[in-house]
């Protein structure tokens, strides 16, 4: 793949700050190269498609057009599941519908924006790491073990669904699966963690209604947290800023409003992988997570 | 029981008898419950077409009632009244009054896409849920749901600047829905967030809140998109 255009998206600029930080240092430590799309716009998140579906398609195609037309890249890497999903969806819509492609291009010309040509591929950070380096490549750079820390790998909705928009997945050996995703398990397992059998890997955290229907979101988060704890997990590893903040926020809400306490920690997979590469928790922004995991990581001899 | 019979067994349609004699035969006991017959006259032939004109509802006609959507639904697991298969069925028959009985929960779809992922006919039930909720708001059957307010606050920020900023969307949403700006659990969340946050990051987030980050090349993109959406809505709904 070589060098990719990095699309942090709005969340990584705000509440997902530690994910952005750990992504950048991780990518550097692995010797990979990426360039940030400095003037990016929002991908539409989960909200604008409800105003009109074409808004989301256009916003996402604009990001891809910035990467290809202005910066000359053929691949955009997004660590956020929401951004990744939306860009893939725009790729799918424009590739399968001439009308959609025509509309996107007409709108771009009207707005004096770069015109999307359907020539960019979007990757999630997990996929980029696996495709460019693979388990063996990353293993060679590991300096520390995650010492058998028990992890429930949580992939969320948008990395896996709907499967139609991810043509690279479910292509047999070595590829990612939309039904039983395993890239995070593979990487953290290679780093010395114990991946626990966790039934809610792709369950919904209610991220779309974090504030507008908090009771539902808290219940859905509790399902995930309690299932992870019951299965013996000490940590839930995340790969999406919305899932991550949702889990942290509603873990707190469950505690403050309903008195339901849980001890499982929520950590970005980039932070865990970074620790295995010997990077410091501070560089990886582990302190900046709301879920205070430093005590556990010390106890496990990881930091 | 076939799903379309659900509306026939509402409590007010059930007749229970202590003793019952039909045509001279005593059927008391196991046979003492009867359902009042009814003829459906309150259907709207055009309803399916109306829903198809809403974003997400385009493929509703493809449904063959296999039930995979409801079977996989995140919200059905929370509340069995949340039933995409049933609402799609009613949409196709034009039985609006039956759908309206559930008007206060349809908007709760969390967009997890399990239904759309599993649907063998590409109905995209998640989109149909959104289409139904929007139709009800347009008809003023329901007030704008909190979720619609959130979507609108979100879009308005993008329209102006090309991007969003977490805190200002959150505050905008609380203001619009007349909620207190300071909620206890969010305070605890905020305090924990600040605890170890590096000063530089804190300043950056503060600045982002005060001056929402802007996509420099945004230009007239917001205007063009707004005009497009208005034009499309005009074509679809008049």
Shape of chain B: elongated
Q: Give the uncertain stretches of chain B in residue-range form.
A: none
Structural class of chain A: alpha/beta
Q: Output the CATH class name of the largest domain in chain A.
A: Alpha Beta
Largest sheet of chain B: 2 strands, antiparallel
Report on the architecture of this protein:
The complex is a heterodimer of chains A (303) and B (238). Chain A is globular and about 55 Å long. The longest helix of chain A is centred in the N-terminal third of the chain and has 18 residues, at 53-70. The relative contact order of chain A is 0.14. With 303 residues, chain A is α/β, with parallel strands linked by helices. Chain A is built from twelve helices and eight strands. Chain B has a two-stranded antiparallel ribbon with strand order 1-4. In chain B, helix 4 crosses helix 7 (125-138), helix 8 (146-161) packs across helix 9 (166-176) and helix 8 (146-161) packs across helix 12.
Q: What tags apply to this protein structure?
A:
heterodimer, A: 303 residues, alpha/beta, four-stranded parallel sheet, 12 helices, globular, B: mainly alpha, two-stranded antiparallel ribbon, 50% helix, elongated
């Amino acid at each position: 793949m070589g060098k990719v255009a990095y699309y942090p998206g709005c969340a990584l600029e705000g509440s997902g700050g530690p994910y952005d930080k750990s992504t950048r240092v991780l990518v550097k430590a692995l010797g990979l190269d990426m360039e940030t799309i400095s003037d990016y716009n929002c991908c539409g998140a989960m909200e604008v498609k409800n105003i009109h579906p074409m808004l989301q398609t256009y916003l996402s195609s604009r990001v891809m057009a910035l990467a290809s037309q202005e910066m000359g890249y053929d691949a955009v890497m997004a660590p956020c599941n929401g951004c990744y999903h939306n860009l893939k969806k725009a790729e799918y819509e424009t590739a399968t519908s001439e009308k959609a492609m025509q509309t996107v291009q007409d709108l771009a010309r009207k707005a004096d924006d770069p015109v999307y040509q359907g020539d960019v591929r979007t990757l999630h950070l997990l996929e980029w790491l696996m495709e460019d380096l693979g388990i063996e490549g990353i293993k060679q750079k590991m300096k520390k073990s995650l010492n058998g820390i028990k992890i429930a790998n949580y992939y969320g909705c948008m990395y896996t669904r709907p499967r139609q928009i991810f043509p690279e997945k479910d292509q047999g050996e070595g590829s990612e699966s939309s039904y039983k995703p395993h890239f995070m398990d593979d990487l953290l397992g290679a780093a010395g963690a114990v991946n626990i059998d966790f039934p809610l890997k792709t369950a919904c955290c209610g991220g779309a209604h974090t504030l507008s229907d908090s009771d539902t979101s808290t219940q859905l988060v509790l399902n995930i947290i309690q299932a992870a704890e019951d299965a013996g997990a000490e940590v839930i590893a995340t790969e999406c800023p919305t899932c991550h903040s949702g889990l942290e926020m509603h873990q707190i809400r469950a505690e403050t409003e309903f008195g339901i306490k849980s001890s499982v920690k929520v950590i970005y997979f980039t932070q865990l992988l970074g620790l295995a590469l010997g990077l410091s928790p501070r560089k990886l922004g582990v302190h900046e997570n709301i879920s205070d995991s430093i005590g556990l990581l010390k106890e496990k001899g990881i930091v | 029981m076939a799903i379309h019979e659900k509306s026939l067994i509402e409590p007010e349609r059930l007749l229970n008898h202590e003793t019952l004699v039909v045509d001279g035969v005593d059927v008391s006991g196991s046979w003492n419950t009867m359902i009042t017959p009814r003829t459906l006259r309150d259907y709207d032939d055009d309803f399916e077409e109306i829903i198809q004109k809403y974003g997400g509802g385009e493929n509703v006609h493809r449904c063959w009632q296999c039930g995979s959507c409801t079977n996989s639904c995140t919200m059905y697991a929370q509340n069995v009244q949340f039933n995409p298969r049933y609402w799609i069925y009613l949409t196709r028959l034009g039985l609006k009054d039956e759908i309206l009985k559930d008007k206060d929960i349809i908007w709760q779809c969390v967009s997890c896409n399990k239904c759309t992922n599993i649907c063998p006919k590409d109905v995209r039930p998640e989109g149909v849920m959104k289409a139904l909720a929007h139709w009800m708001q347009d008809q003023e059957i329901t007030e704008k749901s909190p979720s619609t307010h959130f979507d609108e606050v979100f879009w308005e920020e993008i329209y102006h600047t090309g991007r969003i900023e977490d805190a200002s969307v959150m505050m905008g949403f609380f203001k619009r829905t007349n909620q207190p700006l300071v909620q206890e659990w969010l305070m605890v969340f905020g305090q924990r967030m600040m605890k170890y946050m590096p000063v530089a990051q804190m300043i950056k987030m503060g600045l982002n809140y005060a001056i929402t980050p802007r996509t420099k090349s945004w230009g007239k993109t917001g205007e063009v998109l707004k005009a497009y959406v208005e034009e499309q809505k005009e074509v679809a709904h008049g």
